Structure formats: structure tokens, C-alpha cells
Amino acid sequence: MTEPRRTVGAVGLGMLLLLTGCAAPPAPPVPTPTWVDLSSYDPARDGNGVALLQPSEARAQILSDMAGSATVMTVAFRDAAGRTLDVAYSGATGSFSADVTVDGQTTSIVVDGDTAAVTPSAAVAVPVGLEPGAVACVTASDDLVTRWHPLLDPAALVADASADASGIGAPAEGAIELLLGDEGTAGILRVSTTGRALPSELLRTDETGSLDARFTDWGEAAPRPMPAGC
To answer: Cα 29 vs. chain centroid, distance in angstroms?
Structure first.
């Protein structure tokens, strides 16, 4: 299900009006962005206007559209030493379930408001005196949950990974790419140009390792039920 369409900002709206011939009486000239070819801009295809924003403004719009929205997110992270961490997440901030697999051992987490249920792997359980595989009822602020931040918060993950956004690629196939690092040398964040500016793919490689995150089912994803007893 496509989420409700958002209104672009004042500058973006003014540019869309100019492009479609519906501008009001003479107004101050609107600066022409240098990072996108306006001759190829199609309002029907690129309706949310994110391609017309500066990189920092586009990033802010993406994070705003993501806030509170449910999604299915899968993450594959490989650190510089070759260790692996994978996340399968479903839900929204404050109401989600996730499986976090580190070097082949999985910890399962369900969060509902201030309550969390954690089924820890041996590597997570033993150091804190828990039984591996047994459900532990804790608060959502417990270290068993927060240790995985920002991997259990899609908006926080995107915010962290896109802090060095430097440019925007031209619209293509219903999406733009927010370039990360100098001229995209660190990776890209692919975002829809129709409806809300929601991401579908985040790819990043730097000195800490490589990150591959995919986002689907915006507005429809639901968490697993909270285990009985928590």
C-alpha cells in the first residue's frame, strides 16, 4: 500500500508550478539546481519533488517521511575484520520484532512500548547470566535491546549512514540516489520519487565495513506478537 503523498516544501512547490505552467503572477526567480537536469524532469513521474532539493534538505525530508512509519528491513553488515551481523526487522519505532544474527548465532527481540522480550543467543546470554534460548522479559531501554542501536531503528540507521550526503543523482525508474561520501564514494541511499520519499536500498562501504540494508512493505509491516508472560 502506498502511503499518503506529502506536500513538497515551498521552494519545491514553486519550482513545480513553474515547470507545469501554473505559476502565480511574477515572483522572485527560483534558483535552478545544478545537480539535476530539469529538461528531463517529469512531474507525473517525480511527483514528490525530492530530486529538486539540496542533499541536506532531501536527507531531512527522507528522515521526516520515515519517522513513525512501519517497514520490513533487512540488514547485512560485515566489519573490517570480516565478522558478520544480519538483522531481519519488522514494525516501527516502539513496536517491532527483530532477529539479530552475529557470526551465526541469533538473538530474537520483540518490543511493544516500554516492554521487551529477548530470546538471547549463547554469546549474548552467558556473559550476563541468562539462559540461552529462554525468553527474558526486560524494558525496552535494557542493554539487551539498546546494544543493537541503530540497527533496530530504521530512521536512526539511515540518519547515521547518510550524514555525509553530498549529492543527488538524476531521477530514474521512480527513484533517486542520495550520494554518500564525496561524490558517492561511500555509497548510495535509493529513495522513491513518488508518494513519500521513502528508501528502498542503503549501500555503504567505509573503514568500518560494508552495510547493505533493504526496505519494503512501508506502512504495512507488523511485528511478531509479544511472547506470553512479558
So the answer is: 34
